[in-house]
Amino acid sequence: MNYPKILYDNRLGDAAPVASSTAAGNFDVLNLRDFQPFTWWQPAAMPATVRVDCGAAAAADYALVWGHDLGTQGATLNVRRSPGGTWAGADDVLVATKTPADDKPFLIEFAAPDTQHWGIEVTGATAPSLAIAAIGAALEMPSGLREGFDPVGRVPMGGVNRSVKGNPVGGNVDYEEWSQSLSFEFVAWDWFRSAWVPAWEAHLRGDPFVFAWDPAGHPGELYLVNTVGGFKGPHSAGSVGNLQFDLAGLVS
Fold this sequence. Notes:
The chain has about 250 residues and is mainly β. It is about 10% helix and about 45% strand. It has two domains: about 5-140, Galactose-binding domain-like (Jelly Rolls, Sandwich), CATH 2.60.120.260; about 155-250, no CATH class.
């Protein structure tokens, strides 16, 4: 099933990632994993890699990049893993690749075995800059979105200027906000306790993440969001509840 996914899990957060090079200035490789779109990593030389030793075999089925100029620079992003950890020969495995045509956020989904060493590689003539990069295991929601969900609605945030007589004369848009109240019906209580609550406590209640409402059909429609308030899980007949929570954030 193509259910919505929450993207927060990140192998780059399992240990300190190591970059092959870093440009002078405020381009620390740790900026990649903070889910902040205004901090960046940029390599000093191409090709470039960012690699992490997770300490034990760890799962990943997606790669996410938000905030980048790969399209402008004509660069390619490769997801790589190393079963043996040497990053050479047969121990350097290409998992997925993407050469974006623009600088919009993108999601890559793939199937790969749990691996201790994960990394990204950027290739091309000119070094790009990346704000957010994640390689991790997506939290797939257990059901689809209810009727009424709006994936394209947005609210311009800024100011509107009018003349002294009230005529519109233009305005400024600082950014566009997307917000939704989500509800997932007939969610098994086992899933609430084994998947949702641990994710909530580890990340979702306080840190930004990316929501993909239709990963297969509309992989470019991604939203960098925070939860607004808490969540509810009112009981329904049977061993199920209805998961309800609010999101607000940026349009990609």
